[in-house]
Please model this.
Amino acid sequence: MEISTEKSLWYLFIEGDLNAFSCLFKHFYPMLYNYGLKISGNTELTEDSLQSFFVYLHEHRHTIGKVSNIKAYLFISYRRNLLNNLKKERKYTTYNDSSILESNFSLSIEELSTKQETFKLKSAILLKLLNSLSAREREAIYLKYYSNLNTKEIAEVMDITYQSVLNTLQKAFIRLRSKSESSLIQNILNS
Amino acid sequence: MKNIDQQFLDNLIKDQSFINWVKKSNRNDIQYWNSWISKNPEQIETIELAKSIVLGIRFKETVIDEKKIDKELQKALSSIHLKSKPTKSIYNYKKALLPYSIAATILIIIGLFLGLQQYNTNTTTVHKTSYGEIINLTLPDGTSVVLNGNSTISYDKENSRDINLIGEAYFKVKPIPSTKAKFWVTTNDLKIEVYGTQFHVNTRDEKTDVVLDEGSIHLVLDNGISTKMIPGEFVSFSKSTENITHKKVNLQVPYSLWRDGTYIFNNLTLKEVMKNMEYTYGISTNFETKELEQKLISGGIPNKNLKICLAAIEKSANVNIIQTNNTLTITNNN
Model:
């Protein structure tokens, strides 16, 4: 969807147009669903919270301020909403945001494309490397390469600074590179 | 990380020429960066790291069943209806009583234009679009206009709040509270009188349809009758047959959102959809069978490029469209 189309749909949605709401719903549902599933690791909870998130958006559309980036806005608010739901769900334990995220956000082999340009490794090995990264690094990688958010948007969604998104990505890739090198060497030695 | 120049790395991953080198997509950039690297070997680690960040990790797109999304959407829509129906109508009604704070969305479909209005070249400003072209304009009073393809607006330089329209346009009228200055749009069939609001005008069929979402507006029909509209109402008027329809509709009427390059159709028949295309691109359509005309289309269709547009229609209606010169022939897709 082009940005300008998104914007006019958003405008019409704020005006109460349900057609526009439906278009936005259909467009953003898959990416928010996949993102939510990553955070919660629970399909039912993801579905329910996404459902109530969209209804909430519609209900409170008049109080939403000026939104310059609709995609980033939806990711940010849905993430917050979902984390709150997760906290309620686990109210008798003392999880905070980062421990909720730490326990989840693992990537699965079905999600990785078999054609990797950066790391020419078997999917299973690459997956192992990716899942050995911190949850924050995995989330940044997911948002960048799966959800196609840019650095500024990732910073807003993850509620960290622009510089720390860069650092997180850098660290992740430095580690991935050195690990993939050693696993390549190991492969050669084993064969 | 000691060999990594942070600032340089950040610049590299944002640099289109560098990205072109990484993706081997532009010969000049490939040459440039190859020679740059051979001259700056100490930066090789930063370059390699930047390259891997640009290429990144490839993910497969996980597809979610459309039926499931539709099911979830219907669920959301029904809870919205439960929650907002009673309060919403009160809200709109109250708003209708405040004529100066209106925000209207009007959908008007008006007749084939019968020759252009006379333009006086010295004092009249004219904006005209060709087939398939969409332009954004800001009028001298601050009102913004999006003009669809094959459309014309004209106004006197002295008074840009009195517009003549042939074709299709979307107006975002700037209110002037101090003088309560009105804004007029005149078409072949009628005159629309507004204060500050947003509305959509289309003069492309042999009648005028107006749908008001919020706010209030005044219509002065060509036969002299004047009508006030309140939200949720639909007015249709044809100058040639003098038929007037004035009724209440639900706000989910099908209409097209063309102004940002997408037509949004909500259960519109293929015949109506193709009529839109005919006006925007100046083409004509033949249907192989009558029942093809009645196929329903829902969803967004890009309208900036005829080829892409037709491909999208073919796909969503499951038909074949063959183009010969300016004629489209629509056949069943077997």
Chain A touches chain B through 54 residues (CB under 8 Å). The two ends of chain A are 48 Å apart (CA to CA). Chain A has two domains: 3-99, 107-190.
